[in-house]
Structure formats: structure tokens, C-alpha cells
Amino acid sequence: MAQLAICGGSPVRTKPFTAWPIFSQDDEKALIDVLHSERWFMGDRKEAFEKAFAQYQEAEFGVAVSSGTTALQIALEAAGVGLGDEVIVPSYTFVATASAVALVGAVPVFVDIQPSTYNIDPDSVEAAITPRTRAIIAVHIAGRPADLDRLTALAKKHDIRLIEDAAQAHAAAWKGQRVGAIGDLGTFSFQASKNLNAGEGGFITTSNSELAQRAWSLHNCGRSPEGAWYEHPLIGGNYRLGEFQAGLLLSQLKSLDELAERRSRNGEALGNAIEGIEGIDTTEPDERITTHAYHLFVMRYSAAAFNGLSRDHFIEALNAEGIPCSAGYRPLYGEPAFTTRFAHYPLDSPYYGGRPDYGQVHCPVTERVCAEEAVWLTQNLLLGEESDITDIVTAIEKIQKHADALQ
Ligand SMILES: *Cc1c(COP(=O)(O)O)cnc(C)c1O
């Protein structure tokens, strides 16, 4: 115990954390039921799930689609975003938040995050608004709602749309209301790592009937809900969620409350426990966040309190102690997808008057967080017992105490 595991000592923990996904016999039955129904297409599960999950997120309407990425594309198109438009996105997020913008022919404009929340910085958003701006995408990063008060006010003031990327934020709530329909539209993912999971899948929430109808049409071959099967008022792809996934999601949804409560309880406990450790913080509490979904538990690491041990070495040492963790995202605007000149629609679109030069973009908070501060723990670490939290804290304290051995 005295010696760090990375130096050959015994690790704090050898037991694995709670495995993910979690499924029951009910989930098994839900899948078999779809199989036996012989209605693998246009059965009643997709619609039932649309009603149930929209209601869960306190949205009037919901459309179930193939992924979180396609949900973003459809939400953008439903909001009228297209060629030559600009959409403001945070530079600290999964690539889909920005690539979806490019995939509908618009230009992602990257802005910085707040150092205390890791969410999009409303001041940077305001500074980035131009006459071409059509929408803002606010990501509820790690399951922590972005500042929806300021962002909804900004969107209203400039007459642009606010889309909530809630791929990490099932069950999260802002001032008592679940996220997804506080902005004009919200999007969710049911990809395997997410807090509600069917392997793949996505969802669009809104309480605006016009946007809901457009989103529905865009995900279903441009059909209209009342129209004939071969009547197509819009050009739309086929992005429908399948019946098997809908069946599984209906069943998984039943345990979301319980799992969300567990994540909240353990997330808060871990937050409180690390308060006493110098050089380890989490994001700052905010009373307006009534439910944090804890898709990730974000630790903010400071090497100074660990005898100068770099964040990356800290992560190696913590992994060796039996606590799986990682560094997370890189600044998105630095990815070759955006920086490399390529003759690819739409970033070279003549509608935009030349492609944006992402080599000029610098977001100092994002760069520092990615390079030396962020340490991620995934949501399944928060699904176990109190002793799991104790092990995480013990391992961090052990590394701090023996940090000089790693110099
Ligand atoms: C996972 C994720 C997405 C994309 O969802 P997929 O279902 O994987 O396409 C989009 N945005 C964020 C913030 C995500 O975490």
C-alpha cells in the first residue's frame, strides 16, 4: 500500500467498478417481444418511446432517430440552418456537435468554455454573433446543464435558435425543468456509452409544434404526418430509430430514474470528498442545476499540488491504482477535419465566401483544460457502493502523498 502501484506497489483497488451496460430479464423480454411481434418496422414501440421519452424530458414533442449525430443534423435543418449560415459551438465537446453543422452545409464557429463549468461561455457566444449566425448549440457537458438563462436570453435578443446538445444529459434539470426543450430544440444520444443506451440511437425534443413537424418530416423521407405514404413535401433522409432499439429503450427507460439518482448521490459524495484534497476540484456548484446527470465526473487537476506531477502522469498513476480514468477531449478546432484544406463541401462553399481558417482559432481555457487539467471518470464508476467512492479518494490521496517518487 505504501508504494504507488505504478512503481510496483499494490494497487488501492483490484475489484472492477460496476459494468456497463446494465440489463435485466425485462430488457431481454422487450427484445424478444419485438422479434415475435413480427413488426420489426412501423410497430408501436417507436411511437410509444417517442411519447415516453419526450414526456420524461418535459418536452411536448419527440422524434426518435438513428443517432445523436443525426439528431443534431435534423435539429439544425429543422431550425432552418443551411448553406452559408454560421452556428456557434463550444470547442470542448464531442466532434459531432461541430461536424453536424458542417454536414448540413453550415459553418461551425468555435468559442471557448468557462473555466469553472467546462460549458460554453455565454460572453464568448455573444462576441461571436454575426449577421450570418443562425443558431447556438449549447452542450450540457458531462451531464451538467449549460447556463440556459443567459443562452436563451441571447438567442431571443438576436433572434437565433438555441439547440441543446443533451447527448450526455438524460434526466439533467435546470431550475427544476429537465433539459431538451428549454431551448428551441434538444438532441440526445443512446449510443452505448450514454446514460440511456440501446447501442445506437438518438432523439430530438422540442415544445414547438412547427419545429417538431419539420423534424419528423426530415427524419422520415420528407413525409408529412397526415400525408400519403408516397407524398413528400420536403427532402428528408431516413433516420428512423428501429423497433428493436425502441423496444429496448422503453424497457431501459424504466430504470433511468434509479440510475440517475445513484449517479447524483455518488457524484455529490465524490465532489464533497475531494473538496479536502488540494489540487483536485470538480466543476463549481450552481444552485440552478437541480439535477446533474453525471455522464462523466470531471476532475480539475492542478500539478502544483502534486509536486509538479503532470496531468498525464497522474492519470497513468491513478489507472495503475485500479481507478480507470482518462484525459478526454482535444480542442476540436485543431482536428484535421477542420484544419486541413480539402475540397469538400461545405467548408469551401462559395456561399460562405471562402472556408474559415481554423488555424487562427485559439480558445485558451479549452487548450489549458485539454492539455493539463481535465481528468474524466465515466458514469459507471458512480453506480456502485459508497466504498467505490472511498477507493477513488484513497487512490488520489496516495498519489499525492508519494508524488515525489514519480519525479
Ligand atoms: C455522444 C455525443 C454525440 C453524438 O451521439 P452519437 O449517438 O454517438 O452520434 C453528440 N454530442 C455529444 C456531446 C456527445 O457526447
Description:
With 407 residues, this protein is an alpha/beta fold. The chain has 2 domains: 25-255, Aspartate Aminotransferase, domain 2 (3-Layer(aba) Sandwich); 259-331 and 342-406, Aspartate Aminotransferase, domain 1. It is 35% helix and 14% strand. It contains 13 helices and 13 strands. It has helices at 25-37, 45-56, 68-78, 96-103, 122-128, 148-158, 209-219, 243-253, 256-274, 311-320, 336-339, 364-373, 386-401; strands at 61-65, 86-90, 107-111, 133-139, 161-165, 173-174, 177-178, 185-189, 202-206, 280-281, 289-291, 296-301, 374-378. The strands form 3 sheets. The protein has a 7-stranded mixed β-sheet with strand order 1-9-8-5-4-2-3, with helices on both faces. The chain has a 3-stranded antiparallel β-sheet with strand order 7-6-11, with no helix packed on it. Helix 1 (25-37) runs antiparallel to helix 8 and helix 3 packs across helix 7. It is globular, with a radius of gyration of 22 Å. The two termini are 19 Å apart. The model has no long low-confidence stretch (mean pLDDT 95). The structure holds pyridoxal-5'-phosphate (PLP). Residues 67-69, 93-94, 96-97, 139, 165, 167-168, 189, 191, 202 line the site of pyridoxal-5'-phosphate (PLP).
Outline:
The chain is of the alpha/beta class and 407 residues long. The chain contains 13 helices and 13 strands.
Task: Tag the structure with descriptive keywords.
globular; 3-stranded antiparallel beta sheet; Aspartate Aminotransferase, domain 2; alpha/beta; binds pyridoxal-5'-phosphate; Aspartate Aminotransferase, domain 1; 2 domains; 407 residues
